Batch of 4 targets.
Target 1
Amino acid sequence: MKKTGGGGGGGSGTGGTSGDKKRGRRSYVDTATDAPPRKQAAKKDIFQIFAEKVRDHKDLESRWAILQETRVEYFRGKDFVKFLSNHPELKDVLESDKNLETEDIANILLRKNLTVRCDRVVKTIRPGKRKLSTWPAHLEIFSDQVFSDNDAFFAWTFVKRQPLWQTLLSFSWPVVALAICLFPVYPHQVKLLILYFCAGVLLLIFCLLLLRAFVFGALWIVLGKRIWFFPNILAEEATLKELFQFLPKKDEGERPKWTARLFFALVSVLVILLLRHHAPDEAARARYQKKVSNIIDDVLEWSPRLALSAMMEKQTVLNTTASGENVTDASNISTQNITQANDGEGVILPDQYEEELEPVEHPDR
């Protein structure tokens, strides 16, 4: 009995141990099955953080372009390779995958839809150009989504995180719009300050455009080179940093012919002489300045009180004119009737005129 009991106890103990082992194996299997999704999720978050850090870094050169009617930010494959070789510390974000090659990291970004490979829409050299544009303005999705550093472009597919100052700036736009609408009720000195500031900004922009056009024309005629200072000042898809870039772009076109340069030089001289001949004299300039000053004074001195008083004066003048016209019409009608009565025979007069025309009997007669 004891043996049996012991055997039973041993059997139950063995059975319990095997059950624990099975449960332990089952729990281990469950943990093993749950581990890969968590690991993949962690990897996805890591690569998302890595992509955001790379995109926000100022050393990775990028541009904006139109991809299937969508404005995207893109970079070149060779710039991505050069960037990671110069900044290997960014790979530390990838933890266990930080030893991967640049090509493997780029392919993982493509598989996770953090980037998409693009190709230029215009694949032929335009007339007057020696090579294709370095940064095309229009892109299309490439068929083979594999990383390459040979004339390959990659666009970011995720939305860039908006800085706090941009969020605060977006809330200030309604206040700015309301302040612009309230400009007529500003004090006179504030109006003058705003007017001179806006006029100064516009004058600066026009002078800058004229200066860069003059420099471009002079260098193109004299040296045969196309040099634009502030090359992105008229660009519609440039960032604030690119907008005020002073250095000119490289001349990618062919050297112009001397006949074309000579022709435009003669045209420029003729235009300058024509403008000088038809320039306004001092009297005309003074008249124009006086006219503009009167317009500016009317705008600056406007106020709701003056507007209401002007409207009331206008209404009073209209009422006075209307009443005067009524009196004039009535007198004209009376005069016309009396004239007809005197000149015409057999004219039937109204009763009131008959009473007025009856002879008056004098008591002496």
Target 2
Amino acid sequence: MKRNMEAVASSSSQDIAAIQDEDILNKMLDKAVDFEERRMLRAALRELLKKKREKREKERGSRQEDLRQLNQRGAVGSSTSQQPSQCPPKPLCSYTSQCVPPKPLCSYESVADSSAKSPTATAPNTKNVKQMLLDWCRAKTEPYEGVNIKNFSSSWSDGIAFCALVHRFFPDSFEYFTLDPTKRRDNFELAFTTAEKMAGCPPLLDVEDLLHMAEPDWKCVYTYIQEFYRCLVEKGLVKIKKRP
């Protein structure tokens, strides 16, 4: 890891492209200040995520083909009309059945009151803080395909943006490139459960409420992202002078 970090100091595109460790690229992107170096790092990170996704899709296709052939052999060898049993598909969130149900609320008022005593809650201008937090989310999820954060409402409606933001700080918790934007419930549960498990961020958003809304309430999303950010700061994963 140290050797890779030193190699990138020259800002060589070949050296950056040779790094195949997502965590290293993320850390370097956080520290990089040169525009050209940040551009190369983002390109390398996108390419690495693309390779991982293609590899996963190839492996999944191979497993599906093996399963199909196995079922065909079972059907031919069976003397009854009973349909061959099939293995249930692997759930996107492997710990969904063990997840603690989120609290049925979106209490941004109570969170704001409870965080008023925290230094991170004070800000001279709420509008500026909101924009700063939105810019932070956009910067952290920029390398991820399928994510285009423009606001705190419609940009989060399929759960992919939540997953990308959580995955940026905990890349070993799940495989982002296997996510399906049409499986909104799985995406919400995966993001909120991982954030709670890894960052200690309480599940302030109710999945059932999100599923019944075409676009989530921006106040609820804004408050949840504030809480996630606060938890990251407490764990030392975010270190900047101005905190949203």
Target 3
Amino acid sequence: MDKKATWDRFYTENGSKGQFKNFEWFFGFQSVKDFILPVLLTMSHSHSGPFNILDMGCGTSALGPSIYRASPCAVKVTCADISPVAVKLMEKHTNSASVQPCNPSSALAFLELDCTQLRGRFGTRSLDMILDKGTTDALVRSKEGQVKAGQIVRQCLEVLKPSGVLLQFSDEDPDARLVWLEREVRGAELTADVGVQEVGELRGVSYFCYQISPCTSPHS
């Protein structure tokens, strides 16, 4: 699950079925909009210019384009995935669907990106929000992927602004995920606060929103 070729094959097979359809891991935007939009509105009180948002490991999910379309605040949403096949499918679909934003100053972009290389693409303290819907869950299912998932969390903390937040949507129980997250952020150069809220139950599975925010205070 941590190999680029696996996802290229997956999205090639899905893209060959005819008419494009967004593929959603776990759930779509409607299930989590109340976790995302209020955070942006709260941030907007002390923010000028568009919010820089990264949908990390976007695949062909409609999450990023939906935020672009629904956010009353100006946003610059970058949908990034390791698979160029997924990125091209999303670009083609979005262009053909002519998605229009709620805020005329908003922007939407698609990017081929290995999310273990965030530092090479985004500047230190340059992003307001990073979204991870299922990406970490896919990675932690393999031993090699667990190491990559930890690298990604630590790099997220470097590229997030002090007021920024990483939102991880997962079906992993807090008893396990919180322990893992707290261990990974202890290994980061920046300290971080880790919290969790329950998204709810969908199709018999409980989902959670893990919030990881950089701390301004140094290591104690």
Target 4
Amino acid sequence: MTAVLIACAHGTRFEEGRVVVRELLDILRATAPDDVEVLEAYVDVHGPFVADVVEEARERTSDIVIVPLLLSTGYHTEVDLQEAADGLPVAGPLGPHRLLAEILADRVRDAGAGPDDTVILAAAGSTRPGAVVDVEGMAAMMADAGVQGPVVAAYAAASEPRIPDAVAAARADGRRTVAASYVLAPGHFSRVIESADADLTSTPIGADPRVATVVWERWREARGGDPS
């Protein structure tokens, strides 16, 4: 029986963001184990919507796992995807994860970060308390991934501190700031991060093959397998 991984992204009205998600889906399909089908789905903004994808997949198999292409816990992971799954396993969000920390470290280095800069881990934000825990965990992992300066978690919306406030606080201490764009793809939140007036801003995580590795790890965990 074919297994199905439903890769569910948020959805965006920005075409460049949709391109990144499709590129990541291509990597997932190229790295899929034998007899595992990867399906595209979205929880908001545009289709194919995850509930419809689940309904179609159930007609062919019962071995279905939804893996959120979302970086932290939030309303979508805790409520929307659980409702769409209707009893099917839903994997945890992608972060925090050491491979994401490595990608973020690469992105801030590529942006020109130096050892004395304050790195603002700039996340979207959520009203769910678990989201702050996840982002702060990701910030702690970035030091292990080679980021030398202080790393401060901040948010575009819903949570505190907001990104411009974190930038201003670091500047008040005489430090140059680098906003590490903790979003998967270009879109609304990447633009909010870019407008926060940091001295440097990294690119989003993007369709990095290491993200696909995290997705497959989350898939195995949700099926009860060894995550290693």
